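TASK: fixed-backbone design
INPUT:
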């Protein structure tokens, strides 16, 4: 086996330490987020099936609404990391504040839409007559927490850009604990039912936003950064986020098409698809943690006018992506006999699930590289290319996936189409990184 040159070893070790220091806490914070819904589901589930069904519909709507604006974290991370790399922490925090003000404006607009349209949104989502009132109640109350949720996204981006992923982990843990205690107390102790669950979550989210704001405001005062809203800065932040919004919407469209196709294949296939999608999402958290490290590290190197360091970090993170994908793929295959029975005891669902799961396992190294390169280009502020690349990927995936039922393909064929989607993403991202056009140095792109 060929050994790395001696002069490369210190560089690799430095990059490894940086990646681990940022990715491990980021993974913890990412995993804590879906636990909010799990806690709500566990507590509300004991109220009755209609209440749980209502929560499922409302939570899906809220998750979709918030995930659309994840660019608040991504764009802010890249901008702040560049300024931090350039040594201008005051400007870094100033740009972070622009992102936070934008989050508040978007949050207010979403609340203004969600409150009056809650019954209509629940209706078009297909909630049953018994679940509709509970879904509407939960959605209306929980929508009040959307501004706080978006502030959390933007403030998380600020801290990631400052190379701090530990504080978001601590805030996420505190929020998770508060959410559980508040939900139990308000649902059962105060007898508020599903409304108590919604209020508990809103209070926890507001508490998390306040915790973040305290940290950011302290940093602003320490470095002399203004906290006032700046129209030009907010507008620039919004403009930087538009391409990432297009990318996110295109990715959401891929997932929605896949689920719609699985539903057309029959109850057995959609049940198996949901299990695989849950597992796929879990592996995505692990890979996304490396991508988050990539955003922060690449932005810092480019801001510090160090293109060589950025390229070396990119190369090392790709190696991490491949290795992580191999480990996750092997774990899926080895653990199949253990976790599949936990999801279903239906033999037909298991038979449908297993070959498709093999496809998912084999594609994990591809996913590992895709997530890493996605993070690298986000950290470089290359959002416009990411947007067009994802639109192209959607254009390739959609017709292939929609042909699966008419050609007699099953769930395995559908997940073959999902692997094709990830392969197209890999090719477009690899071409961009190979071109070197993403390497634009300076405090701003």
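OUTPUT:
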């Amino acid at each position: 086996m060929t050994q790395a040159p001696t002069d490369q070893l210190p560089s690799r070790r430095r990059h490894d330490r940086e990646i681990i220091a940022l990715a491990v806490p980021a993974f913890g914070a990412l995993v804590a987020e879906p636990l909010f819904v799990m806690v709500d589901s566990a507590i509300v589930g004991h109220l009755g099936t209609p209440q749980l069904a209502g929560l499922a519909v409302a939570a899906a709507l809220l998750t979709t609404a918030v995930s659309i604006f994840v660019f608040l974290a991504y764009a802010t991370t890249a901008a702040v990391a560049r300024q931090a790399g350039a040594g201008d922490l005051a400007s870094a925090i100033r740009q972070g504040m622009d992102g936070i003000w934008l989050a508040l404006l978007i949050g207010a607009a979403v609340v203004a839409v969600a409150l009056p349209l809650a019954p209509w949104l629940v209706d078009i989502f297909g909630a049953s007559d018994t679940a509709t009132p509970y879904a509407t109640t939960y959605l209306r109350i929980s929508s009040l927490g959307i501004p706080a949720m978006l502030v959390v996204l933007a403030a998380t981006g600020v801290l990631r850009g400052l190379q701090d992923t530990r504080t978001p982990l601590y805030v996420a843990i505190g929020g998770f604990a508060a959410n559980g205690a508040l939900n139990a107390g308000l649902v059962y102790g105060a007898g508020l039912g599903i409304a108590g669950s919604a209020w508990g979550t809103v209070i926890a989210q507001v508490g998390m936003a306040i915790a973040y704001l305290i940290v950011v405001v302290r940093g602003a005062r320490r470095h002399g950064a203004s906290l006032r809203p700046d129209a030009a800065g907010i507008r620039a932040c919004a403009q930087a986020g538009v391409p990432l919004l297009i990318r996110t919407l295109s990715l959401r469209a891929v997932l929605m098409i896949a689920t719609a196709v699985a539903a057309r294949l029959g109850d057995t296939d959609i049940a198996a698809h949901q299990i695989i999608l849950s597992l796929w999402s879990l592996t995505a958290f692990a890979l996304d943690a490396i991508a988050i490290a990539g955003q922060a590290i690449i932005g810092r190197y480019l801001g510090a006018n160090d293109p060589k360091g950025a390229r070396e970090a990119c190369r090392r993170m790709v190696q991490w992506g491949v290795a992580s994908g191999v480990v996750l793929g092997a774990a899926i295959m080895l653990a199949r006999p253990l976790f599949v029975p936990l999801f279903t005891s239906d033999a037909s669902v298991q038979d449908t699930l297993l070959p498709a799961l093999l496809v998912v396992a084999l594609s994990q190294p591809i996913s590992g590289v895709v997530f890493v390169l996605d993070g690298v280009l986000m950290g470089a502020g290359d959002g416009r290319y990411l947007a067009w690349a994802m639109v192209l990927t959607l254009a390739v995936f959609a017709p292939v996936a929609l042909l699966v039922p008419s050609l007699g393909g099953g769930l395995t064929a559908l997940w073959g189409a999902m692997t094709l989607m990830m392969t197209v993403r890999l090719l477009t991202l690899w071409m961009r990184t190979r071109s070197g056009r993403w390497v634009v140095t300076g405090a701003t792109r």
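COMMENT: Residues 373 and 433 are 8 Å apart (CA to CA).
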